[in-house]
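DOMAIN: structural biology
WANTED: fold as C-alpha cells
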Amino acid sequence: MIRTLGDTRIPADVSAAISTTKNALRAQLGSPGDLAEVFAEVEDAMRTEVASVVAERDAGRAVIPVVRFADIAAGTVPGGTREAISRRGCAVVRGTFPRARAEAWDAELAEYLAENRFAETYRGPADDAFAGLASSQPQIYPVYWSGPQMQARQDDNMVLVRSFLNSFWRHESEGRSWFDPNRDTAYPDRIRRRQPGSGSLGLSAHTDSGSVERWLLPAYQRVFRHVFDGRWRDYDPWDGAYRTEVNEFPSTVMCSAFRTFQGWTALSEMRPTDGVLQLLPIPSAMAYLLLRALQPDLAEDDLCGAANGQSLPVSEKHHEVLLPALSVIPAVEPGDTVWWHGDLVHAVADGSNPDRWGNVMYIPASPHCAKNAAYARACGQAFLAGASPGDFAAEDYEVNWVGRATVDDLNRTGRAQLGLDEA
C-alpha cells in the first residue's frame, strides 16, 4: 500500500496500551467521583438531544437538513438551514448535479463494469473494516478511477458544495491555520451498487476515522482535549484544531486524510424504506462515546468493543442512550448528494429495494492541508497506474481495465486535486 506520511506505530501490546491510557485519562479527569459527575452531565445532555431528535421526527419534521444546490450557488441558503446543519452535522444537497447527468453516469459505470467483467472477477471484500458490526455486508465495490467518478470529483458544483460544507468548520484556532476551506484535495473512494430485489445486510451503527486511536493517539487526545480535561461543554465538534495532525494506525481501513464531511452522490432514486443511510444527527455525541469507554463497568482493556483496524461500533450494549436518534435520510434523487460530519455516528439499514437500483459514488470533503496534500499526491500516482489508493486494500482491479479515466480526462481542478500539476 502507498504510504507517504510516516506510519504511526501500533503498540506492541494494544490491550496493555488501552489499559494504561484509560488510567491516564481517568487521572486527568480527577477523582472517580469527578469522572462519574462529568459522565452523568454528558449523558444527561445526550438524553436531551436524543429526545429533541425523536420529538421532531415523530412530529413529521425533518431531522436531516435539506439544502438546495441553487441556494448554495447563489449564496442564499437560509439562516435557519445553516443553523440546522451546524446543529445536526449533516445535510442533503438537492440537485448538486442535474438528474440526467447523474443517470448518464450510472449507465456509464454499469457499462464500465460489464466491459471489464467485474462481476466475473470480483473476489469479495478484502478487508475486515466492518467485522466488529452485527450487520456488515454492504455492496461496496473497489472501483476508483471510472470516468464518472473523476468527473464528479472535479466538477465545479462539487467544489462549491464542499467549500460550503467546510465553512461550518473553524479552520483557524489555537493560533494556527489548520486547513484551507476553499481548496480541495482528492480522497478517491469506492462505489455502491445494489440491484433491484437485492436483499442485503447493511451496516450497524458506527463511526469511521479511527477506533482505538481516538483514545490512544496523542493527536486525538489534543483534538478531544476539552472532553478529557472534564470541560466537555467547551468541546466544539467543528473546531479543526489538531485534526490534521492525526495519523491512524496502519491497516486496510485507516484514513490518511482529514475529512470534514463524509459523503456520497446519488446515481439512482432511493427511498427511506430501501435500506439506506441512517444518521445520528448529534455531532457532539463523540464526547459521550469517549467518556463511556472510561466507565468502571468495562474491562480495563475494553473501549466499548473498539478494535484496531475496524470501524468504531456504537451498540445497544454500551450506547443505548444514543441509538433512538438514529434517523433515516429523506428520499433522494439522482444528482443529490448526502453529507455527514466525519465524527457522526451512522449506519446503513438492512433491507431491500424491490423496484430500484441503489447506486452511489462515495466522495467526501477533504480540504487542503499538508496531510491531505501528501495523501492526494500518492493517490495521483495510484491513478496513473490504475492501482487502488493507499488507504484501501491493494486489489488493483482497474490496472488493465478498458475505459479507465486518464490524465487527459482531468481538468485543471482534477489535476490539482491529485497533485499532478506539482513539479
About this structure: The chain is about 35% helix and 15% strand. The CA atoms of residues 16 and 237 lie 29 Å apart.
